[in-house]
Amino acid sequence: MLTVDLHCHPNLKSFNSGYPEPVCNMWDSIQHKTDTKLAQTISELAAHIHQKSQCNLDSLSAGDVRVFQISLYPTERGFLHLRNIPQVLVGNRRIHVAQQVITGYSASAIAQQKKHYNYFNELQAEYAYVEGQQGKSPDGKSEFVLVNNNKELEAALKKKNTLIGIITIEGGHALGTGAPDTDKIPKEELIEQLTKNIQIIKNWKVPPFQINLSHHFWNHLAGHATSFKRPINSLVNQNKGKNKGITEAGWHVIRELLSTGNGKRILIDTKHMSVAARKEYYAFITNHNHVNPQHKIPVISSHACANGFKTMDSSIRQNDVFAKTRKDRLYKWSINISDEEARIIHQSEGLIGLMVDRGNMGGIDLIKEIVKIPDPVKQRKEYARLFWDNAFQLVKAVGEKSGWDMIGLGTDYDGSITHMDPYPTAVEIPMLQQDLIEVLESTQYRKELWFGYTPQELVEKIMHGNALAFYKKFFV
Asked: Residues 164-217: pLDDT tens digits?
């Protein structure tokens, strides 16, 4: 079954495989560093992160992931400048080894990134790298192309063995903010620079289809939601700007990106935005769509799950800490989508990409129980049921059949996720599809929320149907 992945990083490890030039291509499978005793120790501590390429082009081809949104991501320096260093990591060399093991990046790339905050320069270099990767696979059996619009996408889909990439960007810092000295730049100068940089990316041969306004750290555009759990949250500091709203510079960026007067519209991906920022953005979009019903701007959250809260406000009444999500079936942190948000996204004709990150799918105790299941078939069944629980929560919030039109797949493969154990790479996506179908067929699980669809039809909608319909309307 054809799959569309709304968010993955097939470029990330290969682009960062060497400095000044990458030594790998996007077809290569990259194994993380484990060639020393320390690297092996770190590997064991970080075993929840798959330490091999999850979605290099060969893996995507093997999993029949024909269409995928390639997320360009200049690595935020908050990941590289650690605090509260454990004894096992004392010393720069050991820290570099740990970062190599966890990210799959080369030591030379990590060392270079630590020297500067030139996020926009890195973005342009990463784009140039991905654009240059187009063409035949090393074995000549497949081809990788980038597309600019739905017409090009449909034409490429007619070609056998063609992998189709759509450019996206993760994090507004990539536009040239989020550095220690950004605060020192006069407002007018900052806005002028952002305008210039947005014009540059809109002039790319293949401009981005969408961009996450926020990511893990403060970028001077909009607040971010808490995303890190133990032990990562003790090593990196997300506090600055967390849970803030949209800044003046952020509103300027939003308007410039969404404008069609300066080039193609670039959609805003709301994943990682704080609840405060999301509420402000939703109000803006809802007003626009009310005034312009024939020219809607859709809300997209490319890689998310449901949190089960009725409203956005209720999702932030309690801080995002372990206790908040320990006992519940869904992952309750505010980074996930509330029922209120699901209705807003549905009304905008938007799209939600469900993740395969177990750390964002279910409560902490539940995930521990599933991980311990010794029978692989039973474990797959429980993960499939949890995936459906997230989908059902979103559809139930909408309360009608068309709720199924807004759900897709956004794996976040190669984004250092805690993947569902049976599905570590894109190669296993066909198995996930079959498991999703079988668990519904064999149990009739929550059939009242199927709204007349068969399990096969629901999986087809999630895996490609809804995304392709979305592109037909908005990828212009």
From this structure: 999 999 999 999 999 999 999 999 999 999 999 999 999 999 999 999 999 999
Total-model pTM: 0.95
Exposure string for 124-155, b = 16+ CB within 10 A, e = fewer: bbbbebbeebeeebeeeebbbbbbbebebbee
Q: What structural domains and CATH numbers belong to the chain?
A: 3-8+52-80+117-474 (3.20.20.140)
Burial environment of residue 245 by CB neighbours within 10 A (0 to 12, 13 to 18, 19 or more): middle
312 phi, psi to nearest 5 deg:
-65, -40
Instruction: Answer whether 14's CB lies under 8 Å from 30's CB.
Output: yes
Q: Which residue has the tokens 């450019």?
A: 167
Amino acid at 84: N
**Residue 309 and residue 305: Cα distance in Å, rounded?**
12
Residues shown for the chain: 476
| Amino acid letter, 441 | E
**C-beta of residue 388 within 8 angstroms of C-beta of residue 441:** no
DSSP state of 330: B
